[in-house]
Design goal:
Elements: E1 5-9, H1 13-25, E2 29-33, H2 36-45, E3 52-56, H3 65-75, E4 80-85, H4 92-95, E5 101-104, H5 109-122
Parallel strand pairs: 1-2, 1-3, 3-4, 4-5
Helix pairs in contact: 1-5, 2-3
Length: 127
Amino acid sequence: MEPVTILLAEDEGLLLTEFEQALTDAGFGVVAVTSGIKAIKHLNAAEPCMHGVVTDIRFREPPDGWDVARVAREIDPETAVVYISGDSAPDWASKGVPNSIMLEKPFAMAQLVTAISQLLNDRSPPS
């Protein structure tokens, strides 16, 4: 059985490494990228598809994490989405995709693993 694959988009190198390690330690396959544009390029070219996306909201240049999540959901409406941000949480209700989770930085790595696991467990079973 292939591992569940998560696309991780974070432009702060130290945080990217910490998040990637936490997800890998939890048994996920992780594809880590450092920008929204790289995340969207990977989503459009991904084979196999990503089961989940963990994305920062604000990158140094567009597109932002809101856009990354929308593209992921256009490709697969069941994609689990976790947003991570230090200051964009108030916008989540209006800009976030439905059935997603917002984690405000700083947070414990266990919260990240729990959030993505919860969303993956809530996905519709394959038909």
